[in-house]
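Proteins fold reproducibly. Next comes a concrete instance:

***
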Amino acid sequence: MKHQYVENIKDYPYSSFHQFLEKQGRDNLVNQFKDNSDYKKLYSDQDDF
């Protein structure tokens, strides 16, 4: 996603997102994003790779 290899995280086979999704369940993740919309404002200056 960051380097624009894919437009959607589900299309990137090397992402741990797939395991996380399987473990947490889609509905649970959707609710987490809805309940914590401030995630859009997150920034890390260490994320420069």
